[in-house]
């Protein structure tokens, strides 16, 4: 079998309890992700999304203790047996708070931080920093102090800092939650581009389904520590009982066509974005109205 | 209730955050304050809270000049709810947290207990009065923070991105509580990035961009100006975006929400009578 | 972009050497006039380095501190001739010529010694400080990083504190009371949320560092700490001047 078709993330029967907790944060998780996938992960707060992200990048069990069963394999490496530093070159992580995850004064130093930790020689370091800034589209920010940047720019720096380590996977835990609409849109568009143009495997944890649904081919829903859905966003959002139980946001355009199909007026696929919705609405109104 | 007269604010470093705003919010309105980060929303909130004083112009809340009145006096009139409840919660139980504000206003004994009980009931936290706020979820903590403000019975509620960092259900819950309070007579000014929530809950919007008031009016008027909204990084709600070409062509009426658009489409397709029948209860 | 000058070019350790030289000289002189000259020289260096304007707020703070110091000390020294008395007849608040000279001397000494610190901070990127400490002084990287990271968080904490103040004020928490006890009590609703949020932040930062290979073992560094001819010249100059001034002062 072609090795590129081997799963790049493999979570097998994974259960995790935080110390002193009787309730599992993750219970019997099974998840397989292939190289180059763009995966959305959503679910209510407390469902276990962040815990899953920490299990993937090795923070669990190396930094955060607790009881666990099962196995997480990232690009063939068992995360429990591989030190975080080794995993850093394979899986990059971006977190919610743009402020707290950055450690340096300037953009260049921020990108250098991980490379210095992994003892990358100085000349290669410069080249890798340039390449990462270019990929993220923030070459002009290279020498800027971080405190002068907007929240959205800081998140881009965090993404560039992860990319500089040349990981094959990026895991982002609600990177847009503190950004305004423009900043949020820029981040999801950037991720879409990184996935499309560079084949990067991306796992995006996100509450804003209107941003997520039109961009990811596959949406995984966590609820009460378990995976309760794993399918195309259209299929997931079509399950009314599930949507109601999880209290998921349904993009208004999808919601509209759900109402229309329930009324027997519309029979096609549920649109996930406004432009799709406009096409369907055009067809619907031009077809039926006199 | 809130009157801004040509207020300007320039930070000591020379940055002009607000360049002469004029607006008037009447008692009982539900106004959304929208605009991208850095547009001046936070500065305006700080002026409203008396934390900063306008460098020019006047800002009156309930007849009080925010630049002159003591913060404690202002707190009786204006309740502030912030993005992150962790900025204010510090006591070991929800009950103490709710009693903190009214106690500062001098309430004691029976009257204090009543205030606490009422506030807890208003946000649905009565069963949690003896719980440590830190053991609650972020959405619940946000409700504790809201109740701690309500316990002081302010006339005006100023909410700074009250749904940030919460899931959709929690966000809806907090906004529904705010809606209920609005219907009971509170004046509400809510800063938010969520246009769907604006369409669903507010009556009027103030749009800020680069320190200027770009738009001020009923939602339908504001959301019709896609060009101006774009200048401050905003898109109208999806229902408005969808209906726009048909509305401009005179095929559909102006709408704000999915429900309204749905009704309009059914009416266009089948006539008015049928539309009522297929509408969801 | 901050102003560039010869001060910015110097190795951080050279600037620390200059600081130490100023401190040494400040200690050996006992008269107000030479100390005033020394303080003026520090400000002159700041001016030449194009950072005088930038450090003025810090200098103002130090001046206020010096003034308070004089006010507290001046009535304690009762030797010498009376210059003036605050409450004539009562004997209270007598200010003597000896007290005046001693206090001015001590205040100027303190000013000269502390004024180098803002100059140092304004002309040295923290990252350069880490590199200099680690490479030249063999300070363990973790300590140097900790120092600099905590410096970086000060503006963030200030911002956070601003929000907390507003949030508590909105709950009628009296932060402006004239009563000192009430004021002290009002610290709790500010300090506790700040502390809890900082702990949360610190955890996020630790996790973020961990996912970028922190503590993996031997590391490299993008920047390097070098001593140039200018550094050697400045250090030699400082040494020579200090030695000369010490001899003059002790003669």
From TrEMBL, chain A:
One Pfam family of this chain: ABC_tran
Species this chain originates from: Neomoorella thermoacetica
UniProt keyword Hydrolase, yes or no: yes
Domain ABC transporter: start-end pairs: 9-249
Protein name stated in the entry: Energy-coupling factor transporter ATP-binding protein EcfA1
Family to which this protein belongs: Belongs to the ABC transporter superfamily.
Membrane topology: Peripheral membrane protein
PANTHER family: ABC TRANSPORTER ATP-BINDING PROTEIN MA_1418-RELATED (PTHR43553:SF21), HEAVY METAL TRANSPORTER (PTHR43553)
InterPro entries: AAA+_ATPase, ABC_transporter-like_ATP-bd, ABC_transporter-like_CS, ABC_transpr_CbiO/EcfA_su, ECF_ABC_transporter_ATP-bd, P-loop_NTPase
Gene: ecfA1_2
Location within or outside the cell: Cell membrane
EC number: 3.6.3.-
Recorded superkingdom: Bacteria
Keywords linked to the UniProt accession: ATP-binding, Cell membrane, Hydrolase, Membrane, Nucleotide-binding, Translocase, Transport
Record GO terms (molecular function): ATP binding; ATP hydrolysis activity; ATPase-coupled transmembrane transporter activity
Gene3D superfamilies from the UniProt entry: P-loop containing nucleotide triphosphate hydrolases
Main location: membrane
Cellular component terms per the entry's GO annotation: ATP-binding cassette (ABC) transporter complex
Keyword Cell division in annotation: no
Automatic annotation (TrEMBL), chain B:
MF terms (GO), sorted A to Z: ATP binding; ATP hydrolysis activity; ATPase-coupled transmembrane transporter activity
Recorded topology in the membrane: Peripheral membrane protein
Its EC number(s): 3.6.3.-
Taxonomic classification: Bacteria, Bacillati, Bacillota, Clostridia, Neomoorellales
Main location: membrane
CDD domains (UniProt xref): ABC_cobalt_CbiO_domain1 (cd03225)
EC category name: hydrolase
InterPro entries: AAA+_ATPase, ABC_transporter-like_ATP-bd, ABC_transporter-like_CS, ABC_transpr_CbiO/EcfA_su, ECF_ABC_transporter_ATP-bd, P-loop_NTPase
Family of the protein in this entry: Belongs to the ABC transporter superfamily.
Domain of life where this protein originates: Bacteria
Subcellular localization, as worded in the UniProt entry: Cell membrane
Cellular compartments per GO CC: ATP-binding cassette (ABC) transporter complex
Keyword annotations of the record: ATP-binding, Cell membrane, Hydrolase, Membrane, Nucleotide-binding, Translocase, Transport
The name this protein goes by in its record: Energy-coupling factor transporter ATP-binding protein EcfA2
Species the sequence originates in: Neomoorella thermoacetica
From TrEMBL, chain C:
Subcellular location as annotated: Membrane
Topology in membrane: Multi-pass membrane protein
Alphabetic keyword roster: Cell membrane, Membrane, Transmembrane, Transmembrane helix
One GO CC term, this protein: plasma membrane
Keyword Cell membrane attributed: yes
Transmembrane stretches, start-end: 35-52, 59-78, 98-121, 232-250
Protein name: Energy-coupling factor transporter transmembrane protein EcfT
Organism in which the protein naturally occurs: Neomoorella thermoacetica (Clostridium thermoaceticum)
Gene giving rise to this polypeptide: ecfT_2
């Amino acid at each position: 079998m072609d090795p590129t078709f081997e799963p790049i993330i493999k979570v097998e029967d994974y259960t995790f309890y935080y110390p002193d907790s009787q309730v599992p944060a993750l219970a019997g998780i099974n998840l397989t992700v292939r190289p180059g996938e763009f995966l959305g992960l959503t679910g209510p707060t407390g469902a276990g999304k962040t815990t899953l992200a920490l299990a993937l990048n090795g923070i669990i069990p190396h930094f955060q203790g607790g009881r666990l069963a099962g196995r997480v394999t990232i690009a063939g490496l068992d995360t429990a047996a591989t030190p975080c530093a080794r995993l850093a070159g394979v899986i990059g992580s971006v977190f919610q708070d743009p402020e707290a995850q950055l450690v340096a004064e300037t953009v260049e130093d921020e990108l250098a931080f991980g490379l210095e930790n992994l003892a990358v020689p100085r000349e290669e370091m410069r080249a890798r920093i340039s390449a990462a800034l270019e990929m993220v589209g923030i070459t002009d920010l290279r020498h800027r102090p971080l405190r002068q940047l907007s929240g959205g720019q800081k998140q881009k720096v965090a993404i560039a800092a992860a990319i500089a380590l040349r990981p094959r996977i990026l895991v982002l835990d609600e990177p847009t939650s503190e950004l305004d609409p423009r900043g949020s849109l820029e981040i999801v568009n950037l991720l879409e581009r990184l996935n499309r143009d560079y084949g990067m495997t991306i796992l995006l944890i996100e509450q804003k389904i209107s941003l997520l649904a039109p961009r990811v081919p596959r949406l995984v829903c966590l609820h009460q520590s378990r995976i309760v859905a794993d399918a195309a966003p259209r299929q997931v959002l079509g399950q009314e009982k599930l949507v109601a139980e999880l209290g998921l946001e349904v993009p208004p355009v999808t919601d509209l066509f759900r109402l229309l199909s329930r009324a027997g007026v519309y029979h096609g696929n549920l649109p996930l974005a406004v432009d799709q919705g406009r096409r369907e609405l055009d067809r619907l109104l031009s077809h039926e109205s006199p | 209730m809130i009157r801004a007269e040509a207020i300007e604010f320039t930070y000591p470093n020379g940055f002009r955050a607000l360049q002469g705003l004029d607006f008037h919010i009447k008692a009982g309105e539900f106004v959304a304050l929208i605009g991208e980060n850095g547009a001046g929303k936070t500065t305006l909130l700080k002026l409203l809270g008396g934390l900063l004083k306008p460098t020019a112009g006047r800002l009156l809340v309930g007849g009080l000049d925010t630049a002159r009145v003591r913060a404690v006096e202002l707190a009786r009139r204006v309740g502030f709810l912030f993005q992150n409840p962790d900025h204010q919660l510090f006591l070991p139980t929800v009950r103490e947290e709710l009693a903190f504000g009214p106690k500062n206003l001098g309430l004691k004994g029976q009257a204090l207990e009543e205030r606490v009980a009422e506030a807890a009931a208003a946000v649905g936290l009565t069963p949690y009065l003896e719980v440590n706020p830190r053991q609650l979820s972020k959405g619940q903590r946000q409700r504790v923070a809201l109740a701690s403000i309500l316990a002081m019975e302010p006339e005006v509620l100023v909410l700074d991105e009250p749904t940030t960092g919460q899931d959709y259900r929690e966000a809806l819950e907090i906004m529904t509580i705010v809606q209920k309070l609005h219907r009971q007579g509170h004046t509400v000014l809510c800063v938010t990035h969520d246009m769907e929530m604006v369409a669903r809950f507010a009556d009027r919007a103030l749009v800020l961009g680069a320190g200027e008031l770009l738009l001020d009016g009923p939602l339908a008027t504001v959301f019709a100006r896609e060009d101006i909204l774009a200048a401050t990084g905003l898109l109208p709600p999806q229902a408005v975006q969808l209906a726009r070409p048909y509305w401009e062509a005179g095929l559909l009426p102006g709408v704000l929400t999915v429900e309204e658009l749905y009704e309009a489409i059914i009416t266009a397709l089948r006539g008015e009578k049928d539309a009522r029948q297929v509408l969801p209860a | 972009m901050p102003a560039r000058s010869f001060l910015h070019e110097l190795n951080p350790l050279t600037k620390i050497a200059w600081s130490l030289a100023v401190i040494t000289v400040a200690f050996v002189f006992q008269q107000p006039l030479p100390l005033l000259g020394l303080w003026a020289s520090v400000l002159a260096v700041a001016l030449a380095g194009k950072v005088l304007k930038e450090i003025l707020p810090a200098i103002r703070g130090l001046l206020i501190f010096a003034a308070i110091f004089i006010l507290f000390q001046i009535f304690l020294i009762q030797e010498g001739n009376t210059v003036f008395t605050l409450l004539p007849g009562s004997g209270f608040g007598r200010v003597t010529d000896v007290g005046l000279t001693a206090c001015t001397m001590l205040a100027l000494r303190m000013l000269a010694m502390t004024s180098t610190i803002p100059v140092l901070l304004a002309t040295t990127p923290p990252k350069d400080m880490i590199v200099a400490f680690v490479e030249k002084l063999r300070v363990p990287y973790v300590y140097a990083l900790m120092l600099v990271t905590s410096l970086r968080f000060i503006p963030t904490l200030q911002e956070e504190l601003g929000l907390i103040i507003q949030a508590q004020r909105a709950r009628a928490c009296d932060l402006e009371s004239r009563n000192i006890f009430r004021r002290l009590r009002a610290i709790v609703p500010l300090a506790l949320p700040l502390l809890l949020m900082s702990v949360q932040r610190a955890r996020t930062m630790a996790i973020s560092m961990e996912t970028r290979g922190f503590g993996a073992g031997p590391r490299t560094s993008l920047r390097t700490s070098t001593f140039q001819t200018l550094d050697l010249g400045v250090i030699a100059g400082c040494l020579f001047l200090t030695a000369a001034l010490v001899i003059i002062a002790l003669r």
